[in-house]
């Protein structure tokens, strides 16, 4: 049976007071005069309506992130970087959120992964007095905002669980202003703070936990520049399990005697769908960076990305990873890593392998060849258009041979270097990504190594203490995401709301 169309709902009043009513306006004026509407202005500037019936959590979070001016680091539409509901999918696939909504714990996960500082509390982890203090603090500042998770029934409204930001506070009447993101249903409205606490002090039947509130603020450091973890593809579950559960067990073997063996243990048993996960670890948006009409701001971002890559390539662990990938024990065909299909060096690496097989008289693909490194070079002759050449070193057992691939034309500018000079890679290659991944794994991943000397050497290689600041922040952000995803994997994200201990 078709459902009749609905145009808004009448706001039950009392207990709520419509923001646009005479009484609501008076409350607003009085709250401004008492200084408890400072957070309102930023929030109202980015007030949005949820685009799906179950997107209240995503709409609320994107609104708050934009109000805090946190740069998502990737484009929304056209040249604009902007948080949108569709970009908040690192902890729960959008289709699942669209069907079922999102839990309190996973919204905390999303806020953290988006680069915000998050302090979250269920009602059984706080008190109404503390809640009032937090609401007051955020209402007198525009540096933090409160997101409330509550049950609509307490306010005699239709529906069940809901998320919305708190836009202000009236101290004299002890009332909070809810900027309801379901604007198609109810307008912004004032509610008694004790009643809001009661609405939050309600058990979510899906998780079995009480609802609550979270304080969202800007972090001391910027969100990650190059690397991020995501569960856009379902493979993240098996990958996260392997890296955080299986690898520590595998490393307890008595056969693990040196760094190469450690890398061999980690890399040779990777899940077959690891490539889907890796694509999102190195999410650098090459479509943006390849544009020749970059603004000064975008050029600055690109320079930061290049510097992070440069720092990755200077750590000792990178040298071990590169050596391992070029050894006879490791071939590109053995790693379940698809690389980037639109990345010229990665394409060329595959061509180099095929070319080496052809020159060796092997016309059928063989697992005996793998690339050691690739380098993009540009040559100019007599003022003609540049000629792009990709040079690669291909390994076959103990022998190596150089292969050059001539690219007839290349429409966008690549990182070029002259003959005989060192190349600067502008995008992560396999060794870059795997190095960052190893650095980001929780430190107890390596604790099962029995050889004490090797264990200490591994701790030294993955230590963040002596890393350059940019890379250190990148690695710690990744490590935090790993720990949050770990909670998601074991359904603990709704049990443990505190920021991950790095």
Q: Could you report the average pLDDT, rounded to the nearest whole number?
A: 77
Number of domains: 2
- Category from helices, strands and their pairing: alpha+beta
For the biggest sheet, the summary is:
7 strands, antiparallel
Kindly estimate the percentage of residues that lie in beta strands according to DSSP. 15-25%
Euclidean distance between termini CA atoms = 53 Å
The Cα radius of gyration reads 27 Å
Number of helices: 17
Helix content: 25-40%
Uncertain regions: pLDDT < 50 for 5+ in a row? 280-291, 338-344, 363-369, 409-426
Biggest sheet, strands in spatial order?
Answer: 1-8-7-6-5-11-4
Describe the protein.
This protein is α+β, with helices and mostly antiparallel strands. It folds into two domains: 17-217, Phytochelatin synthase, N-terminal domain (Cathepsin B, Chain A); 236-488, no CATH class. It has 17 helices and 14 strands. The protein has helices at residues 22-33, 38-45, 56-67, 94-100, 104-113, 128-139, 193-200, 236-250, 259-268, 274-281, 286-289, 296-312, 316-326, 344-359, 430-440, 452-462, 469-489; strands at 17-18, 75-77, 80-81, 117-122, 144-151, 161-170, 175-178, 189-192, 203-204, 209-210, 212-217, 369-379, 387-396, 399-407. A seven-stranded antiparallel β-sheet has the order 1-8-7-6-5-11-4, sandwiched between helices. Strands 12-13-14 form a three-stranded antiparallel β-sheet. It has a two-stranded antiparallel ribbon with strand order 2-3. One of its GO terms (biological process) is cellular detoxification of cadmium ion. Keywords: Acyltransferase, Cadmium, Metal-binding, Transferase. GO terms for molecular function: glutathione gamma-glutamylcysteinyltransferase activity; metal ion binding. Residues 1-221 form the Peptidase C83 domain.
């Amino acid at each position: 049976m078709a459902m009749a169309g609905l145009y808004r709902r009448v706001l039950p009043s009392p207990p709520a007071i419509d923001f646009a009513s005479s009484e609501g306006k008076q409350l607003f004026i009085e709250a401004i005069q008492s200084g408890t509407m400072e957070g309102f202005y930023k929030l109202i500037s980015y007030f949005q309506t949820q685009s799906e019936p179950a997107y209240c959590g995503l709409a609320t979070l994107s609104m708050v992130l934009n109000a805090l001016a946190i740069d998502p680091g990737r484009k929304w539409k056209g040249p604009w970087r902007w948080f949108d509901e569709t970009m908040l999918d690192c902890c729960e696939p959008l289709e699942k959120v669209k069907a079922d909504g999102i839990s309190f714990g996973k919204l905390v996960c999303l806020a953290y992964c988006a680069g915000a500082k998050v302090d979250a509390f269920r009602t059984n982890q706080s008190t109404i007095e503390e809640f009032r203090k937090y609401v007051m603090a955020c209402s007198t500042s525009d540096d933090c905002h409160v997101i409330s998770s509550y049950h609509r029934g307490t306010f005699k409204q239709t529906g069940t669980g809901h998320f919305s930001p708190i836009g202000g506070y009236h101290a004299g009447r002890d009332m909070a202003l809810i900027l309801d993101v379901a604007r198609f249903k109810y307008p912004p409205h004032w509610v008694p703070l004790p009643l809001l606490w009661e609405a939050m002090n309600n058990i979510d039947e899906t998780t079995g936990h009480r609802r609550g509130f979270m304080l969202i603020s800007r972090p001391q450091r910027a969100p990650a520049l190059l690397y991020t973890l995501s569960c856009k593809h379902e493979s993240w579950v098996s990958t996260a399990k392997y890296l955080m559960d299986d690898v520590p067990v595998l490393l307890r073997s008595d056969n693990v005697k040196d760094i190469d063996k450690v890398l061999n243990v980690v890399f040779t048993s990777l899940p077959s769908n690891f490539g889907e996960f890796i694509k999102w670890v190195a999410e650098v948006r090459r479509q943006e960076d390849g544009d020749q009409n970059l603004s000064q701001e975008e050029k600055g971002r690109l320079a930061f990305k290049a510097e992070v890559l440069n720092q990755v390539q200077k750590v000792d662990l990178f040298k071990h990873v590169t050596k391992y990938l070029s050894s006879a024990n490791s071939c590109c065909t053995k790693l379940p890593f698809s690389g980037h299909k639109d990345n010229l060096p990665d394409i060329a690496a595959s061509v180099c392998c095929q070319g080496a097989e052809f020159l060796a008289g092997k016309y059928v693909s063989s697992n005996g060849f793998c690339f050691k490194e690739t380098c993009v070079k540009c040559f100019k002759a007599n003022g003609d258009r540049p000629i792009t050449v990709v040079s690669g070193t291909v390994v076959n057992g103990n022998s190596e041979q150089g292969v050059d691939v001539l690219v007839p034309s290349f429409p966008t500018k690549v990182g070029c270097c002259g003959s005989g000079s060192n190349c600067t890679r502008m995008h992560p290659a396999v060794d870059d990504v795997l190095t960052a991944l190893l650095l980001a794994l929780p430190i107890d991943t390596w604790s099962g190594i029995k050889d004490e000397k090797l264990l200490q050497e591994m701790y030294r290689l993955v230590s963040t203490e002596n890393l350059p600041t940019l890379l250190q922040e990148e690695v710690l952000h990744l490590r935090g995401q790993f720990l949050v995803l770990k909670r998601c994997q074991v359904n603990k994200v709704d049990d443990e709301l505190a920021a991950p201990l790095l």
